[in-house]
Specification:
Layout: H1 2-12, H2 17-39, H3 45-48, H4 51-72, H5 74-98, H6 103-124, H7 138-153, H8 158-179
Helix pairs in contact: 1-2, 1-4, 2-4, 2-6, 5-6, 5-7, 5-8, 6-7, 7-8
């Protein structure tokens, strides 16, 4: 899901096939790699096996070939990105809990799993990452991760919190897209860049 958004951004910026495939892979795996390194799951799962690379390459090739069609399907692509955010956030949180992290840190790492790929993608494209702007993106991932943590503290099995957590994340992200929900933005007193 995230590989599609990375590849599509590469196509929009006129990258060649290699650049599109790199963005697809980086967007798909960076969040999980950061989480795995931080919890000590070495080598990271997406590097230890070939599945993540294969999925990202296939997604990148599809986007490269059918980018015109995908551009017309803008809303479904945004939905898939939101769904990926939810799935990665709750899965990352559960993996962090399974590795013995405290609930607050597990939620933070779940959020990082969801947003990490997009942050790295945006940095590679020399853009301010979406999560640092006013859109509700990281907060949606953190809310989904919070559901998993709350369920864990209540003694619920992971299966009981995965779907509600991902659902809350997707709902918040889609409302941010369609209803314009945003976080407050700091007003600068002056335009001077000096601290």
């Amino acid at each position: 899901m995230f590989a599609l958004s990375g590849a599509l951004l590469g196509v929009r910026h006129g990258m060649d096939l290699f650049g599109v495939l790199v963005l697809a892979f980086v967007t798909a795996v960076s969040g999980g790699i950061m989480r795995d390194v931080l919890i000590g799951a070495i080598p990271p799962e997406s590097v230890a096996n070939w599945h993540a690379l294969a999925i990202a390459v296939v997604a990148g090739l599809m986007v490269f070939r059918f980018s015109d069609l995908l551009e017309r399907l803008r809303n479904p692509v945004q939905f898939f990105d939101a769904a990926g955010l939810g799935v990665f956030a709750v899965a990352g949180t559960q993996k962090a809990l399974d590795h013995g992290l405290t609930p607050p840190m597990a939620a933070v790492l779940g959020m990082l799993t969801g947003i990490g790929g997009g942050m790295v993608r945006d940095v590679l494209m020399a853009r301010v990452p979406v999560v640092l702007r006013s859109e509700i993106y990281a907060v949606a991932a953190l809310a989904g991760a919070g559901v998993v943590v709350a369920g864990n503290l209540a003694g619920l099995p992971p299966a009981a919190t995965t779907l509600p957590g991902a659902g809350l994340c997707v709902f918040l992200r889609m409302m941010a897209i369609y209803r314009g929900w945003k976080l407050p933005v700091a007003r600068a007193a002056t335009r001077d860049d000096t601290p």
